[in-house]
Amino acid sequence: MHIRRSGYYAWKRRTPGERVMEDALMKRMIEPIFKESKQTHGARRLQVSLKRVGINTSRRRMHWLMNEDGLVPKQVNRWHKQTTKADETHEKAPNLLDQDFSADYPNQKWVVDITYIATKEGWLYLAVLLDLFSRAIVGWSM
After folding, report:
1. How many of the other CB atoms lie within 10 Å of CB of 46?
2. Which domain holds residue 124?
3. Is residue 78 part of a domain?
4. Which candidate among 49, 52, 83, 85 keeps its CA 20 to 30 Å from the CA of 122?
């Protein structure tokens, strides 16, 4: 590469541009907010946080700034319905199927599952009994 010495030194003396300075300021502001959120805030939430203090930026730029700093938000599972509570004093049921969900003849293996259905009055619980040979519903209760 043939670069003139004067061009190199001119480049070294050049002050950073306005955009570079803005990026550096935003990076300094983003990191504490991100850590305060226990690394759960993504580009959208960080963008809103900066907007509250008067700094408007696009989500795309926020993604870029986070990527530059290596800030990757953790995904949080907010809610899980707990169906059972383990009681160590009770004996565990044996695993009779051992992940073998095939059957050679009808009524050889049945399985049960439950699900929750949200209604205006509240939650409904649906229990279904399934024959593994025909995959037919043998019975159900709500």
Report:
1. 25
2. 92-142
3. no
4. 85
